[in-house]
């Protein structure tokens, strides 16, 4: 059975392994970036486990703007108690657990927590091949992002919560 919980520093090695199995070296969060996120935003960093094995993760800081900016990949600060926009900097599922509802469960959990804290939206960027996936969960496509992260084209996806 899938269990979702907040991240701990002990999760770090498995998180790095999953991230690197899902993203190119240029796109993947570094170990250092994960350490920062675990330290500053454990309240919006969730882990999916099955039989005590980490199979997926979702994380991102709460930001003041509706869209993600590249500085977020290096500069993270603590989340405000309420309000703002919940961003998703990373959603990754172990390849052997993909297509089994893990990503959907992580997104649903993040949304539930964001609603409790009265966030205005959930905002993320994705590659073109994932637009339909996010649309299925109520995200709207706001066009090409200004993000240069990893040297690929990203699309702004946003879901209003209020």
Write the topology of this structure:
Layout: E1 2-6, H1 12-22, H2 31-40, E2 45-50, E3 53-59, E4 62-63, E5 85-88, E6 90-93, H3 102-116, E7 121-126, H4 131-136, E8 140-144, E9 155-160
Parallel strand pairs: 5-7
Antiparallel strand pairs: 1-2, 2-3, 3-6, 4-5, 7-9, 8-9
What does this structure look like?
This protein is α+β, with helices and mostly antiparallel strands and 162 residues long. The chain has one domain: 3-Layer(aba) Sandwich (Aminopeptidase), CATH 3.40.630. Helices cover 26% and strands 28% of the residues. It is built from four helices and nine strands. A five-stranded mixed sheet has the order 4-5-7-9-8.
Strand order of the largest sheet: 4-5-7-9-8
The CATH superfamily turns out to be Gcn5-related N-acetyltransferase (GNAT)
Large-scale geometry: globular
Give the CATH level 1 class: Alpha Beta
Count of folded domains: 1
Order of helices and strands: EHHEEEEEHEHEE
Low-pLDDT windows of residues: none
User: In percent terms, what proportion of residues is strand?
Assistant: 25-35%
Largest sheet, in brief, is: 5 strands, mixed
Percent range of helical residues:
25-40%
Provide keyphrases for this structure.
single chain, 162 residues, alpha+beta, Aminopeptidase, 4 helices, 9 strands, 26% helix, 28% strand, globular
A few lines on this structure:
The protein has helices at 12-22, 31-40, 102-116, 131-136; strands at 2-6, 45-50, 53-59, 62-63, 85-88, 90-93, 121-126, 140-144, 155-160.
């Amino acid at each position: 059975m899938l269990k979702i919980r907040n991240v701990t520093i002990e999760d770090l090695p498995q998180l790095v392994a999953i991230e690197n199995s899902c993203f190119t070296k240029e796109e993947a969060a570094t170990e250092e970036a994960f350490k920062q996120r675990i330290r500053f935003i454990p309240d919006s960093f969730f882990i999916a486990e099955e039989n005590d094995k980490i199979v997926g993760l979702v994380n991102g800081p709460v930001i003041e703007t509706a869209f993600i900016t590249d500085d977020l990949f290096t500069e993270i600060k603590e989340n405000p108690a309420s309000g703002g926009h919940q961003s998703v900097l990373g959603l990754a599922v172990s390849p052997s657990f993909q297509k089994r509802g893990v990503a959907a469960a992580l997104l649903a959990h993040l949304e539930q927590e964001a609603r409790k804290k009265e966030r205005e939206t959930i905002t993320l960027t994705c590659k073109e091949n994932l637009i339909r996936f996010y649309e299925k969960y109520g995200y709207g496509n706001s066009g090409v992002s200004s993000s240069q992260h990893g040297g690929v084209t990203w699309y702004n996806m946003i879901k209003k919560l209020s």
